[in-house]
Amino acid sequence: MSNIPTPHNGARGDEIAKTVLMPGDPLRAKFIAETYLENTVCFNTVRNMLGYTGTYNGKKVSVMGGGMGMPSIGIYSYELFHFYEVDSIIRIGSAGGYADDVKVHDLVMGIGASTNSNFAHQYHLPGTFAPTADFGLLRKAVEIAENKGISVKVGNILSSDTFYEDESNAKDLWKKMNVLAVEMEAAALYMNAARAGKKALCMVTISDHLFTGESLSAEERQVGFRNMMEVALELA
Ligand SMILES: O=P(O)(O)O[C@H]1O[C@H](CO)[C@@H](O)[C@H]1O
Ligand SMILES: O=c1cc[nH]c(=O)[nH]1
Fold first, then answer.
1. Residue with CA at minimum distance from ligand 2 atom 5
2. C-alpha angle 27/28/33, rounded to 5°?
3. Which of 166, 182, 201, 223 pairs with 106 at a CA distance of 20 to 30 A?
């Protein structure tokens, strides 16, 4: 493990569990660690991208922020998969709803992640890559949510390079393709997992709706996603 610590992650050796939960917001990682984990150790403070390892129901699990956007999660997930021997990363994010039947607080799982990013360009593929979730993680996550009585929608999500779009009809076009919601990281995470031969899943809670204008406050986004956190922890 000569590549660690990395320029972005101060963890050493076996400080990180095989499964990492990854919210975009490092303060959401801190909240999860403080609320749900026992025997917790903070393994990363570089750039305040907080990372913790602890136990949940006796099982070792890590939780670390991944930042906003594909370059950011691209770095952290690459290092975890390749340098820290992490097997699975479960992104737990917020997203903006597109579909009519998606409402704020809903839990959505991305079976696929469409994207307007050029992340796949690096692979020099002779076509278009379809970034997808690991089926085993997805199936298990749906099962856990259903057993808890939490309704879950599974479908295609959009990973966008832009939060603030210049005037365009992009959202109408993605909605026409039955894309459920927009976030900013899943496609890069799924591609890094595919290339590394590892597993990834992105689940999101809808924080606002791009067509109806419904939205949650920043505080609700930070701590209000308990259903998703509990599904992800059980999955881990
Ligand atoms: O809540 P997180 O996980 O950061 O996810 C969403 O929120 C951020 C934008 O506000 C982007 O990172 C987007 O993907
Ligand atoms: O990326 C995101 C996340 C939440 N809401 C949005 O509109 N976009």
1. 96
2. 95
3. 166
- Residue ranges per domain, the chain? 19-235
The CA–CA distances, whole Å, from 179 to 51, 103, 114, 190, 212 equal: 31, 14, 8, 17, 16
Residues in the chain: 236
- The catalytically annotated residue of 25, 101, 134, 208 is 208
Three-state DSSP class for 47? helix
Q: How far apart are CA 211 and CA 154, in angstroms?
A: 19
Q: What is the ipTM of this complex?
A: 0.98
Query: How is residue 27 written in tokens?
Result: 């303060």
Q: Is 97 annotated as a binding residue?
A: no
Q: What number of other Cβ atoms are within 10 A of residue 215's Cβ?
A: 15
Closest CA to 97 of 86, 105, 88: 105
Cα separation, 17 vs 123, in Å, equals 28
CB atoms within 10 A of CB 164: 4
Which of ligand 2's atoms lies nearest the C-alpha of 183? 1
pLDDT of 1 above 60: no
Q: Which ligand is nearest to the CA of 215?
A: 2
User: Interhelix angle for 186-196 vs 70-82, to 10°?
Assistant: 30
pLDDT of residue 218: 81
Architecture of domain 19-235: 3-Layer(aba) Sandwich (3.40)
Residue 220 exposed, middle or buried by CB count within 10 Å (0-12, 13-18, 19+): middle
Per-residue pLDDT of 141-187, as tens digits, reads 999 999 999 999 999 999 999 999 998 999 999 999 999 999 999 99
Query: Any binding-site annotation on 51?
Result: no
